[in-house]
Amino acid sequence: MAGKLDEVFGFHENALRLRAQRQQLLASNIANADTPHYKAKDMDFGKAMQSALLQGRNASQAAGSLSQTNTSHLSGELSAQLPNTFLRKATQNNLDGNTVDMDVERNEFVQNAMHYEADVSFAQSEIKGLLSVIQG
Fold this sequence. Notes:
Order of helices and strands: HEHHEH
Number of strands: 2
Largest sheet: 2 strands, antiparallel
Number of domains: 1
Structural class: mainly alpha
Distance between the termini: 18 Å
């Protein structure tokens, strides 16, 4: 039974986690809009989702398989948490080398937030459907 629930909610869990990570990237871009030489980052959500779903199917390749053996070692979590990130190409030339375009960032931020809310709604409808089956 637990395997079926993981199947049902695994997709939504991955989608919400990746949307939240993308939102953090976009917020970081907005926060660094005036930082000289800052390069805007983004995430390819489709590729990241495919990668997360494949990792879910292959339990031996689950995320977080790296272990920190010494407190002075880097955890390796950043690369595991931010799959398929890339530097966004500059849409306008800035003298300070910053590639953040606030119009693009705001639009992407709002669009990602709407997708996040839709993913939450889909997960809620799955839960409601399961509750109606359980309750009869």
